[in-house]
Write a structure and sequence with these properties.
Number of strands: 9
Largest sheet: 7 strands, antiparallel
Strand order of the largest sheet: 6-4-3-2-1-5-9
Order of helices and strands: HEEEHEHEHEHEHHHEHHEHHHHH
Strand content: 5-15%
Radius of gyration: 26 Å
Structural class: alpha+beta
Distance between the termini: 68 Å
Number of helices: 15
Oligomer: single chain
């Protein structure tokens, strides 16, 4: 078995040979029978392919060209600890580079066949000059100084790159800036990704909690195309853009809207936890007791979360994670405040923290940021315990 790093080196080596063999650096002139199509691939089982994939297929048998331009290339790094640590740091800080790769068409299709993921082809209805222009743009994009880009989930990924190069090379195929496709809809970026992750409720709450204000902005249908399925839909709707379409690899469609029944979801579990904690808090109140150790654990956890949200805003390039209002209930200063739950001098702070939590609940429908529904019982737990601290320490 090859290591991950060796596999990627071999991939690049063979891609280089493939490109050199067709004289791509020499700006090949496509034949009249050349065909350019967009490939949309279904979602996979791993986090990085949860939302599907998009690529561009160039087929010109007269020039011995049958390749796929793939903007989704990235490396996990080597197998060593230092390599993996470097990858993790880059990923967390939003500095992970993706790049445009080129691979043999049959290898691309075989890979998705092995993964049992469907591949849908839309042959683009382009004249000869448009084909050549698009091909040349891809070749220029593939030059070593151009192929790498800083990945951004919502605004610069494998799907949006295909959308943008179609527009740059062919023209406003989806409509110009004055058409409805560029107007905000009633759906935010969070709304758009939710159907893909609803089947995994813990991933859903994790992503929702990590995303900040930019992710709650209402998106236009043009911006919808950061998701491969939406790009496929808009390409199909663009007047005269698709010449023909078909499945190249066909497997049962994985319905992104499907929601399985889960016994233990974050909302159910946190609601049950709130009921238990409320019952214990009431009994302790009647008995004039207080579990300070319990509050220290709760407050410290929220401080860790708040510090993470603050770091993702100020310390990374992850724009979707900036200005995260979840810090209203997971206050970063709690990472220190947990030490002072018995201190009367800190009562004003805990009143402030309780007020912020109440603000999250009272302004739920007015907030510019969307919160996960499980934040309701979670925030309620913190408000309850803050009030219990204030009452007990005052007495």
């Amino acid at each position: 078995m090859f290591s991950t790093s060796i596999k990627y080196k071999l991939t690049f080596f063979f891609a280089f040979l493939l490109i050199s063999s067709i004289g791509i650096q020499a700006q090949v002139k496509l034949s009249d029978n050349a065909q350019i199509s967009m490939l949309t691939c279904s979602k996979g089982n791993d986090l990085y392919n949860t939302f599907g994939h998009t690529a561009i297929h160039i087929k010109d048998l007269e020039n011995n060209i049958n390749i796929v331009f793939n903007y989704g290339m990235f490396s996990f790094g080597g197998s060593g600890f230092k390599d993996q640590l470097n990858f993790g740091v880059k990923f967390v800080r939003g500095k992970l580079e993706y790049w445009l790769g080129v691979e043999d068409y049959s290898d691309f299709v075989s890979n998705y066949t092995r993964q049992e993921r469907w591949v849908y082809e839309q042959v683009l209805n382009l004249d000869q000059s448009e084909k050549q222009h698009l091909f040349n743009a891809l070749v220029i994009n593939y030059e070593p100084e151009n192929r790498a880009y800083r990945y951004d989930f919502f605004f610069d990924n494998c799907s949006s790159r295909v959308r943008d190069i179609l527009v740059d090379a062919i023209g406003p195929v989806f409509g110009d800036e004055n058409t409805p496709i560029h107007e905000p809809t009633d759906q935010s970026f969070i709304d758009l990704i939710d159907p893909y992750i609803k089947e995994n409720p813990w991933l859903d709450i994790g992503m929702d909690m990590m995303l900040g204000l930019p992710s709650s902005r209402k998106a236009s249908k043009y911006e919808f195309m950061f998701l491969p399925y939406h790009l496929k839909e808009q390409v199909g709707l663009a007047e005269g853009l698709v010449l023909s379409e078909q499945y190249l690899v066909e497997f049962p469609f994985r319905d992104i809207e499907e929601q399985k029944f889960h016994l233990f979801t974050p909302f159910k579990l946190l609601t049950f936890l709130f009921i238990i904690i409320a019952t214990i808090s009431y009994r302790n109140y009647k008995a004039k007791k207080h579990w300070f150790w319990f509050d220290r654990i709760l407050i410290f956890i929220s401080g860790l979360l708040g510090s993470l949200f603050l770091f993702m805003w100020l310390g990374t390039d992850h724009l979707p994670a900036h200005a995260n209002l979840n810090m209203f209930w997971a206050f970063p200063l709690n990472i220190v405040a947990f030490l002072f739950v018995k201190n009367k001098k800190w009562l004003l702070y805990f009143k402030f923290a309780a007020g912020l939590g109440a603000f999250v609940l009272l302004a739920w429908f007015l907030s510019p940021q969307q919160y996960h529904i499980a934040i309701i019982p979670l925030t309620s737990i913190y408000i309850l315990r803050y009030l219990k601290i204030i009452d007990f320490v005052n007495k």
